[in-house]
Amino acid sequence: MSRSNPNQLSCYLGRVSRPTTEKYLQGRRPGTYLIRDSSSIPGDFVLAVSESGKVSHYIINSKGSHYQIGENTFPDLSSIIDFYKKHFLDSTSLIEPLFRVQAQYPFTAKDAEDLSFNRGDTLVIVEQNEEKWWTAMDEQGNKGLIPEPYVKKLVDLQQQTATPPQPIVSPQSAIDQRRSMPPPVATVQDNSNSRRTSVPPNMRPNQSPADTGGTLYVRATRKHLMPYDDTTLAFEKGDLIKVLRKNDNGKWFGQKDDRTGYFQFNYVEIIPANECPD
Question: I need a labelling partner for 178 at 20 to 30 A (CA). Which of 51, 105, 233, 237 fits?
């Protein structure tokens, strides 16, 4: 039987104490789980699961060539996860893993429910409750909302170590790589103060020709159509748009042919100055 590296599992949190594990899982949806190192038997693991209003801890014994839970044996940790996704433990099967992320950029809390962190910090995601805002807990036990584009799954970063390191991209590039995400539904007013509908400060677009007195053109990366809002600029994927004004809330004002209106900046990509029509 073969054995896998536990670091290849997103649910593996390493050396986490039982009390900390219970902080992570208490009150979570039944079937939420993680795997940690056993604190009493080196080399063994523990499968911790939220079920029936409690946190259960199932010891995973290492038997050299295989692992064992109770009377069941498995070749590797992945097989344990797969098995208990289809079979009950005590009162639930495995449904959703907790996982760790590492901060790629620093973030300062803007609201009371936010969680501040520094670049390089490791956080545990305890709930993916919004598309771009997740609930996380830091190593001190503080919990709050964090912007998802600021972090990367730790398991993904660990798997990248076998390949040449890539330069860390800017926050704007992080947004560019997530253009498929639905845009925030901000109001048209430039002074909108709803954090859930605005772009976090250091995720805002970098300086462009429009900022320095030049003309900025962008190309639509997807369709933008809101027929019931006459302040919105409609366009099709591939259309060329002239940017007249950029706003910090993520809504830009632009012109296409003889029409003007607002649009979300993450629906477009900036065209290099040497490719602009002017």
Answer: 233
Residue with tokens 């986490």: 16
Return the bridge partners of 217, or none. Answer: 242
- Report the C-alpha gap between 171 and 135 in whole angstroms: 20
Q: Which residues face 253 on adjacent strands?
A: 245, 262
Closest to 141 (Cα-Cα) out of 256, 16, 266, 2: 16
**What confidence tens digit (pLDDT) does each residue in 76-120 have?**
999 999 999 989 888 889 988 999 999 999 999 888 899 999 999
Task: Give the tokens for residue 204.
Answer: 């805002």
Q: What is the pTM of this model?
A: 0.54
Cα separation, 268 vs 217, in Å, equals 10
Q: Which two tokens stand for residue 229?
A: 């809002």
Task: Give the pLDDT confidence of 222-262 residue by residue, as tens digits.
Answer: 887 765 567 888 899 899 999 998 876 667 889 998 888 88
Nearest residue to 186 via CA among 251, 255, 232, 114: 251
248 close to 219: Cβ distance less than 8 angstroms: no
Question: C-alpha distances in angstroms, 114 versus 182, 187, 196, 204, 246?
Answer: 21, 22, 11, 18, 26
Judge residue 107's burial from the number of C-beta atoms within 10 Å of its C-beta, 0-12 exposed, 13-18 middle, 19 or more buried.
buried
Task: DSSP for 237-269, please give it.
Answer: TT-EEEEEEE-TTSEEEEEETTEEEEEEGGGEE
